[in-house]
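User: I'm curious what two different proteins look like when written out as structure tokens. Can you demonstrate?

Assistant: Sure. I'll show them one after the other, since each token string lines up with its own sequence. Here's the first protein:
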Amino acid sequence: MSKTATGEADDIVLKLSEEENAIVDVVRDFVDRKVRPQARELEHANAYPEALIEQMKAIGIFGLAIPEPYGVVKVSTPCYALVAEELSRGWMSLTGAMGGHTVVAKLLLEFGTEDQKSRYLPRMATGQLRATMALTEPRGGSDLAHLTTNATRAEDSWAINGAKTWISNARKADLIALLCRTDPDATPPHTGISILLIEKIDGARGGLTIAKDLPKLGYKGVESCELFFDDCRVPADAVLGHEPGRGFQQMMRGLEVGRINVAARATGVAKAALDDALAYAQTRESFGKPIWQHQAVGHLLADMATKYAAAHQLLLHAARVMDTGGRADLEAGMAKLFASEVAMQITLDAIRVHGGMGYSTEFDVERYFRDAPLMIVGEGTNEIQRNVIARQLVSRGGL
């Protein structure tokens, strides 16, 4: 988000600390100077952004959710959302590189034992150890309560068997928070699910195969892989919090910040598309005047800006609710649902504003249009979000 009157108003409403404002400014500058000039080339080559990831580590982006004594600074969720939006304004894939990592950090902070926190969080805060989560299964999709990947307890270990798919950062991450079934007879089924912390050693783990990178429409540069577990052994104390059977509830809490991350990705992509369309409409002329002065284009820009502003505020509202310590599944679900649908519409409208140039790979708007659908189907499809929202509306007695 550029330093406009809107941005300054956000700072006032959110009451970000001086340090948090400085962090957002640093990330904004990083995006403008380092990310945007090379994002198109990296994305078209589907190249892993190693140098940019290293700079993100140096800035401290991977430790934003990790407080002392494990990290250096823990920012508020609104600050985290603004950082994620800025990264996505430059290249959405970069936000994907830190999204699952932040969810795992939250899971450890809220549910991990002291030994688990001390073992993983200091290295996660620096980015030395990167983390991801493994939820989706080939046949299960969003139906996490009926997953089939299972772990059987032996004396001093768990033996894991099954498969996961669409796991982002699976090759680069050395810590995987795996959602799996540890009690096949539990009733209801979700009470038999646990989170196992799987640490790869030197990039490998016996019994774990990281298969092909899945080809994607957008979201390039960051890998999304299939995982296969064949009697993969992890220590008995690998269960998050050392309490089997609580994984489903734990992950649902973690996904609240995950959905805020996805909503921020959507608003970042939408902002980039809006900015590019607005700039193009002021320089491109037809019939003797800038095209924004033609009502058809001017109205598109007006609608795009209004939708972005509404999605951005809904994102920040969800982030503020998250920081109250209470449940934010309704608010995070609404932000993810609305922001992702808005991003899809704004990126399409940006192509309309650009006309034929919008269909060219020499302009970034085609990339925004390819990236936007991920937020509609990722972190729980929007159809699932509507189920969550409706259920919470009934549970809470309305808004």
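Here's a second, unrelated protein for contrast:
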Amino acid sequence: MKKTIKTLLTASVVALGLANALHAQASVVVGGTRVIYRGGDAEQTVKLTNEGKLPALTQIWLDKGDPKASPSSIEVPFTITPPLARIDPGKGQTLRILYSGEPLPQDKESVFWLNILEVPPKVSGEGGDANHLQLALRTRIKMFFRPEGLKGKSEDAPAQVTWQVVEANGRSALEARNPTPFNVTFSSLEVTGGGKTVRSADGGMVKPGETQTFPLSGEVSQGAGGKVQYRAINDWGGDIAGETALNAAQGK
């Protein structure tokens, strides 16, 4: 069993690409798009549901941000039970995530990734010996460890991010600086300046105290009246829409 799962995991990156091409869909659905583990909590729970027509075997683990890391090589200060689970069609499984107490920063959030690998059942009966493609589908969502006593509120953090237009890799980009202790994830970004509006095709996350650049679809003037329209993702996976002024360009 362990050897089978390890083999499937090694191929999961390729399988995920094939799944996208073939419009494959995981049977096991996660109850939420992110997990918030508050520092004062004894544990956090996550609900899995099998919406498919066949039993599903799942392997569950956390990583630190490297999607290619093997579960056996990852060390995180959390335990997940059960790490393996069979979920029958129409049934659910509750995961328990427990913090081991090992030191983590207390002045800002830390981010981990929850992985749920769905191993396809073995084909039996007629056609069971024929050549066929089986995909190991992986769902991967963020888990934020939020220490007690952080200043401010997570829902207010997107409005505190500051922006300016910069040049990155020979093209215009939007630079975000996050002064808050919370991770802020943007699902869409749009810049208006000089009567022109351009967008960033890729959203992304800006970690506490860090800077992140988002390539823009074209050139835009960073003059008076320039604005950034954004959509950020809140703790429940919903959108926070906002607008803020561009900062003046800084010399580099």
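A detail about the second structure: Helices lie at 2-10, 12-22, 157-160.
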